[in-house]
Amino acid sequence: MLPTTRRQWLGTASAAAAVFGLGTLTGCAGSAPLQAPAGAQAQSNWPPRPTLIAHRGASALRPEHTLAAYREAIAAGADFIEPDLVITRDGVLVARHENALALLNADGSLQEATTDVAERREFAARRRSKTIDGQRLTGWFAEDFTLAELKTLRARERIPAIRPANVRFNDQLQIPTLQEIIDLAKAETARTGRTVGIYPETKHPSYFQSIGKPLEPVLLQQLEANGWNDAKAPVFVQSFEVENLRWIRARSQVRLVQLIDAKGQPYDAVAAGRSTRYADMITSEGLAQIASYAQGIGPHKSLVVPVKDGKNAAPTGLVGTAHRAGLLVHVWTLRPENAFLPASLKAHPVENGATRGDIQTDITAFLRAGVDGFFCDDPAVGRAAFQAYQAR
Fold first, then answer.
1. CATH 3.20.20.190 assigned to 38-93+175-390
2. Which of 42, 225, 305, 365 lies at a C-alpha separation of 20 to 30 Å from 3?
3. Distance CA 389, CA 338 (A)
4. If we measure between CA atoms, which residue out of 87, 84, 85, 83 comes closest to residue 5?
5. Rounded CA separation 351/150 (Å)
6. pTM for the full model?
7. Would you say the C-alpha torsion 253, 370, 312, 83 has a positive or negative sign?
8. What is the pLDDT of residues 104-153, one digit of tens each?
9. Rounded CA gap, 304 and 279, in Å?
């Protein structure tokens, strides 16, 4: 059985070696040296390219991170379903966009909610104010609830103004565990004869490490228990931070993807006082470093196809540079509503963010840029778009 804490993993290493960002992950006592997976060496014939990744499930059609959203995505032909992972007070990985189950504004009004927790009187005392990745937040947080308590909550649409049709599913669906998501992927693989993978993101890894609830050991233990802790498993693990991915690579050959935002820094770099920016990570040198521990990158869409004067402009060349480094490119996130599309692709009335625009043309721009896959909130539209593109 795999150990469940980093201290167990690190054996005789010092306690400091368990902390991200101290440069010790590659040289811990007793740990295997990092190996460059060299993208192509770690890939099998699956997944197909382009790869269709259901972003939080079919989140344009069902409340995100619910089994209903994942089922809808699989039915639409998604190759992967994506759970964002946080952890409960009793150490169980569950799928939520953030560890916050509901957030409040400074005046106490509801800012955002993915559950009904703010209306549950029995949990009123669980309201907390916390600093997470440098941001002060007030609300209810998954790590303060046991799994049994979380299972009494019901999921809600996170962005109802943009996805009003999803509101009809409010209060009908539970928060799923990672194991339930794995079970669903395996069952649908067996039922359909088509491989369905999972693409988990570890959320706020430095924060969870700081409170003594690191996500990565639990994740590896769960993958191991399901026979999915190797380079051929239908799994990609992703993160916006770096050192947690390096930590995983030192202990597992499961496929990894380094997420890259359009601006800013990985938070583990911020916490450690390092100057590394996401912009540094998309240079030839930065991509070569990523290739030493990951199979791919997940860049923000604007880093591949920027928007200029309200239109998709010429590709940046990032895809070619990443490919030369041996890395896959899975771009995020392609969404159907006006709120997320360039002005030239919005549908009338353009001021209505919930109106669906020309998402197929948007997707086609990224396929032309040569991406290996993309995250999509409506997998049925994504599947239709690249089938049309391939038929040309």
1. yes
2. 42
3. 22
4. 87
5. 37
6. 0.90
7. negative
8. 999 999 999 999 999 999 999 999 999 999 999 999 999 999 999 999 99
9. 13
